[in-house]
Design a protein that fits this description.
It is found in: Cytoplasm. The strands form two sheets. Strands 8-9-7-10-13-12-11 form a seven-stranded mixed beta sheet. A six-stranded parallel beta sheet has the order 2-1-3-4-6-5, sandwiched between helices. The protein folds into two domains: about 1-125, Rossmann fold, CATH 3.40.50.720; about 150-310, Dihydrodipicolinate Reductase, domain 2 (2-Layer Sandwich). The model has no long low-confidence stretch (mean pLDDT about 95). It has helices at about 10-20, 40-45, 60-65, 80-90, 105-115, 130-140, 150-165, 195, 210-220, 255-265, 315-325, and strands at about 1-5, 25-35, 70-75, 95, 125-130, 145, 170-180, 200, 230-235, 240-250, 270, 290-295, 300-310. The protein is of the alpha/beta class and about 350 residues long. Helices cover about 30% and strands about 20% of the residues. Strand 5 (about 125-130), helix 6 (about 130-140) and strand 6 (about 145) form a beta-alpha-beta unit. It contains eleven helices and 13 strands. The structure holds NADPH dihydro-nicotinamide-adenine-dinucleotide phosphate and N-acetyl-L-glutamyl 5-phosphate. N-acetyl-L-glutamyl 5-phosphate binds next to strand 9. N-acetyl-L-glutamyl 5-phosphate binds near residues 98, 178, 183, 209 and 232.
Length: about 350
């Protein structure tokens, strides 16, 4: 059994990791941390885990975490980087669900995250954990930077076109919507029921920190300079990301549908839907699946890609378990075969 630790077990991505890991046949949950709930039985706080998990939250303590084979950090940005060097030194593998290791350039990271990086020397080694592009590197990695939720939906949508060099990479547009759980469990006025329901709004239209992450990821697969307009929106649902992506074709493409189907034909967690589909966020709720549909309106040369994920699953905890499976040499789908919850 793989001994696993979760730092930040009280948060939304933390408890989603627990939901997936308690049914994972190769995992023993050894340490789950919380500063605010230390000493409390986990299933008292999260009754969905009653009968599945019988341990208590403990204070985050690097020596206890070092007894694990692999540790997930489901913590705010800037926390994992303080403990990762020690854990790696002690032979523990790490998957960070936050952004500490996602951006390769430490100056760019500091510019967007507003702090000095604690271990910039590890940025080059860290593998960006999008299995659909980096499976082989993930398999050899000690440290994986789990992608953000918007970046997962947007990159999976654009990548087949960008990789094939069929679109003007300098003029990509991503119009994205997120459920409120994307903002985490911490109390804030903006996520109160009365503030976030029956309404919808864009935010950070002039610069969201996922912009450099998505641009970096697309640039790795593009011969041309990537230019992206990215606007996130908050929508009144609990889970889900819906990305509507626009790109301009630079040449005639006979069969866009075939291009996407070919790109993802061996991917267990990417579903290219039939021509004319409009994927719904509820079709991936609770599942580690990204569903994609491609549309080519008759007028003009614009391609529209629709991409949906559950922000807490393929956008966070599910993708992290997928990465763990790859890092530990397990079947990539182990513990991740959930069907989405409908209606
Ligand atoms: N929510 C989402 O959809 C997604 C989130 N992410 C990223 O994943 C990370 C976690 O997000 P989310 O679960 O939503 O966040 P939450 O705010 O819901 O949870 C954060 C967790 O971190 C713990 N924590 C906070 N500060 C510290 C600290 N200094 N040391 C140790 N533990 C700490 C908290 O527990 P306690 O205070 O009890 O210790 C809590 O369990 C974030 O970096 C987020 O950006 C990535 C993709 C999607
Ligand atoms: C709705 C909402 O607030 N969403 C969050 C994204 C959460 C996330 O994925 O954060 P990181 O990838 O940066 O870790 C936001 O826009 O900040």
């Amino acid at each position: 059994m793989i001994k696993v630790g979760v730092v930040g077990g009280t948060g939304y991505t933390g408890v989603e990791l627990l939901r997936l890991l308690v049914l994972h046949p190769e995992v023993e949950l050894s340490v789950v941390t919380s500063r605010s709930e230390s000493g409390r039985k986990i299933s008292d706080l999260y009754p969905n885990l009653r009968g599945h998990l019988d341990i208590e939250f403990t204070e985050p303590d690097v020596d206890r975490l070092a007894e694990c084979d692999l540790v997930f950090f489901a913590t705010p940005n800037g926390i994992a980087m303080k403990s990762v060097p020690t854990l790696l030194e002690k032979g523990v593998k790490v998957i960070d669900l936050a952004a500490d290791f996602r951006i390769k350039d430490p100056e760019l990271w500091s510019q967007w995250y507003g702090m000095e990086h604690a271990c910039p020397e590890l940025l080059e080694e860290a593998v960006y954990g999008l299995p659909e592009t980096s499976r082989e590197q993930i398999a050899k990695a000690r440290l994986v930077a789990n992608p953000g939720c918007y970046p997962t939906a947007v990159q999976l949508g654009f990548l087949p076109l960008v990789k094939a060099g069929l679109v003007d990479a300098s003029c990509l547009i991503a119009d994205t919507k997120s459920g409120v759980s994307g903002a985490g469990r911490g109390a804030s006025v903006g996520t109160l029921l009365c503030e976030a329901t029956e309404s919808m709004k864009a935010y950070k239209a002039d610069g969201h920190r996922h912009l450099p992450e998505i641009s970096q990821g697309l640039q790795w697969h593009s011969n041309d300079k990537v230019g992206l307009t990215f606007v996130p929106h908050l929508t009144p649902m609990i889970r889900g990301i819906h990305a509507t992506l626009y790109a301009n074709l630079t040449q005639d493409v006979e069969d866009l549908q075939a291009l996407f189907e070919q790109a993802y034909k061996d991917e267990p967690f990417v579903d290219v839907m039939p021509v004319g589909s409009h994927p719904e966020t509820r079709s991936v709720k609770g599942a580690n699946t990204c569903r994609i549909a491609v549309h080519k309106p008759q007028n003009g040369n614009t391609v529209i890609i629709l991409s949906v994920i559950d922000n807490l699953v393929k956008g966070a905890a599910g993708q992290a378990v997928q990465n763990m499976n790859i890092m530990m040499g397990l079947d990539e789908e182990t513990g991740l075969r959930q069907v989405a919850l409908l209606p």
